[in-house]
Amino acid sequence: MIVVAGEALIDLVPGGTSGSTPGSTTPPGPSAGGELPALLPRRGGGPYNTAMALARLGSPTAFCSRVSTDSFGEALLSGLRADGVDTALVQRGPEPTTLAVASIGADGSAGYGFYVQGTADRLFELPGALPDGVTALSLGTCSLVLEPGASAYEALLRREAGRGVFTALDPNIRTGLIADADAYRARFRGWLPDVGLLKLSVEDAAWLAGSDEPDTAIREWLAAGPAAVVLTHGGDGMSVRCQDGTGCAVPGEPVEIVDTIGAGDTVNAALLHRLAAHGALSASALAKLDEAAWRDVLGFAARAAALTCSRAGAEPPYAAELD
Predict the structure, then answer these.
(1) Which phi-psi region, left, alpha or beta, contains residue 230 (left: φ > 0; alpha: ψ -120 to 50)?
(2) For residue 138, what are the β-bridge partners?
(3) DSSP-assigned beta bridge partners for residue 140
(4) In terms of DSSP bridges, do strands 99-104 and 110-115 run parallel, antiparallel, or are they unpaired?
(5) Which contiguous run of DSSP H or E holds residue 230?
(6) Edge-to-edge strands, sheet with 166-170
(7) Taking a C-beta distance cutoff of 8 angstroms, is the pair 313, 13 a contact?
(8) Cα–chain-centroid distance for residue 111?
(9) DSSP bridge pairs for 3
(10) What 3 state SS string does 116-141 have?
């Protein structure tokens, strides 16, 4: 079983202006006529989307988080259960659900503004021992920024890595939530000895490195712990760099983009699912993957992400769609 730990929230996505056709990708903001944009609630959050995508691909998956008892929280849990995600590790609380207001650019890229004060997910506490048979732990996004929950997720990462569980990290940077960039970068570097696979976008890599040319930083990150770093390059595909200096890249899959919401989360899931198929959910096994195996893993993830981008919101594909 793969455990995904982190936030579950509600994305408020553009649905056009009041009285417009549902499903429009008009960005938030008054229309020419001064109408307010219609925002449609959608289940989301990077870890939540990753858990859903893993389950849809056929990987036994559990979600570990703290979710509100409000109606949004109930909808979030219902969505996970509908796809077969185990929710036994989910903590509950009466605080409201975190909201993320999405804006969609002309190219389908998504930006977010967050409402996080006093919300349920940031009060996550370190759980007891994870179930027997856990093969991997995936973490990332807002959950590693917002205290006090961030420290609990960090403790979970260190504890599980220490007992030999394979760990995957997607920082998925949301700069609007990070009050002190240098402090967060230092904290990120402190996680790396406990990370088996680091996945991030080229934009996030540049931000974390503090440079538009992050190659030196990536080599330093690899030396600190991860067996491999996977970089996503948007429509240009993705690449991997390994500790031994090897690597490869695959092109993106041509697709008519509706929006990119959930694409990176789908990549997280597809990587873990395909690595499991190669028997590579360990740092030692990951280090032994040859170029052909990596091309298979990356190509699978690229196809899965393309399907997510072809439809509105975070709607990862099912296994049958990729066969």
Answers:
(1) beta
(2) 4, 168
(3) 170
(4) antiparallel
(5) strand 228-232
(6) 61-64, 2-5, 136-140, 166-170, 197-201, 228-232, 238-242, 247-250
(7) yes
(8) 15
(9) 62, 137
(10) CCCCCHHHCCCCCCCCCCCCEEEEEH
**Whether 47 contacts 63, CB under 8 Å:** yes
**pLDDT tens digits, 62-85:** 999 999 999 999 999 999 999 999
Q: Of the candidates 284, 305, 262, 304, which has an alpha carbon nearest to the alpha carbon of residue 43? A: 262
When pLDDT is cut at 50, 70 and 90, the band that residue 132 belongs to is confident
Contacts of 268 (CB under 8 A, 6+ apart): 46, 50, 53, 138, 140, 168, 170, 199
User: Quick one: which H or E segment has residue 64?
Assistant: strand 61-64
> Can you point out the beta strands (E) in 237-308?
238-242, 247-250
pTM higher than 0.85: yes
- Rounded Cα gap, residues 237 and 255, in angstroms: 12
Decide: 247 and 222 in contact? Cβ < 8 Å. Answer: no
* CA gap 190, 117 in Å, rounded: 26
pLDDT at 167: 97
Say if residues 157 and 188 touch (Cβ distance below 8 Å): no
Strands 247-250 and 37-44: unpaired
Instruction: Round to whole Å and give the CA distance between 142 and 7.
Output: 7
What is the rounded average pLDDT of the residues 204-231?
94
Summarised one tens digit per residue, pLDDT across range 133-153 is 999 999 998 899 999 999 999
What is the number of residues in the chain? 323
> Rounded to the nearest 10 degrees, what angle do helices 149-162 and 181-191 cross at?
20
Tokens of 267: 């990549």
Query: 41-55, 112-126, 197-211, 217-231: lowest mean pLDDT where?
Result: 112-126
